[in-house]
Design goal:
4-stranded antiparallel sheet, 7-stranded mixed sheet, mainly beta
Length: about 120
């Protein structure tokens, strides 16, 4: 059974940092492109960041470039999203997602597996 378990969300002040984790089971990271997407209150799903199946390339939405970093640990079968210099507009439910291809997609419908989401709130 494939399962993605996202965690690490919480309340953080503007300018602060959080690290999200996504533990994958039944799904070797080497076989999947992994992404983080988010959904802000009242808005649709938005692509945030991705890492290729081989782990050699990473991608970021313009809104988070230079502030967020995606990485993975294949030994732990876990993908991370380090979020720094956070802004109120980063407030959203963050989802990790997987697709069995080398490259990512910015379209939520292109992902086969989803985690349950973790809430991030940036507020003073």
């Amino acid at each position: 059974e494939v399962q993605l378990q996202a965690s690490g969300g919480g309340l953080v002040q503007p300018g602060g940092s959080l690290r999200l984790s996504c533990v994958a089971s039944g799904l070797p990271l080497e076989d999947f492109a992994m992404s983080w997407l988010r959904q802000a209150p009242g808005k649709g799903l938005e692509f945030v960041s991705a890492i290729t199946r081989s782990g050699d390339r990473t991608y970021y939405a313009d809104s988070v470039k230079g502030r967020f970093t995606i990485s993975r640990d294949t030994a732990k079968n876990t993908v991370y999203l380090q979020m720094n210099s956070m802004k109120p507009e980063d407030t959203a439910v963050y989802y990790c997602a997987a697709r069995p291809y080398h490259y990512y997609s910015s379209r939520p419908t292109d992902y086969n597996y989803w985690g349950q989401g973790t809430l991030v709130t940036v507020s003073s």
